[in-house]
Amino acid sequence: MIVPMETQPERTVLSWQRTGLGMLAVAGLVAHRAVGTARPALLVAAGITALLGLLMLGRLAPARYRQVCRRVAENRAVSDPTPARVATAGVVLAAVAAAAAVLMPD
């Protein structure tokens, strides 16, 4: 089955949105743990993770969508490692915050 090219930008933006929403969910869970255990350091980590998730949703996802649309229209390759590296760094930081929340004793 051949997938039409015009669906690629939509799939791309949806994956970026899912990543941002996942980071917001992790931030909420870490914040819940921070409030429940009275750990202000975890609350800071949750805030940073939430900001990264909002950055992903508000800036990176729309910018990547426009970039992919432009490259598809120009019949150029759509791969670009820079946004992927930024997203990977954000997800790794969210994972570190979640690990800290789970591994810190009550």
TrEMBL record:
Entry membrane topology: Multi-pass membrane protein
Residues in coiled coil: none
GO cellular component terms, semicolon-separated: endomembrane system
Alphabetic keyword roster: Membrane, Transmembrane, Transmembrane helix
Subcellular location: Endomembrane system
Record domain DUF202: where: 8-68
InterPro entries hit by this protein: DUF202 (IPR003807)
TM segment ranges: 12-35, 41-61, 82-104
Protein name as annotated: Putative membrane protein
Organism the protein comes from: Blastococcus saxobsidens
